[in-house]
Amino acid sequence: xxxxxxxxxxxxxxxxxxRLRLSVATVRDHLSAIARKTGGRxxxxxxxxxxxxxxxx
Length: 57
Hints:
This protein is mainly α. It is built from four helices and no strands. It has helices at residues 3-8, 13-20, 24-38, 46-54.
């Protein structure tokens, strides 16, 4: 599973980092990049757009 999928499932940043063996800062960087690319300003807004756009679900 990736950062986007885990975020969509409601997983907290720290838990995502632990599951994927990444630092919390790296997970936040991924979420920021997703938000930038989808025009979102926070974590909840870009996730549905990204999932639809990239057909993750």
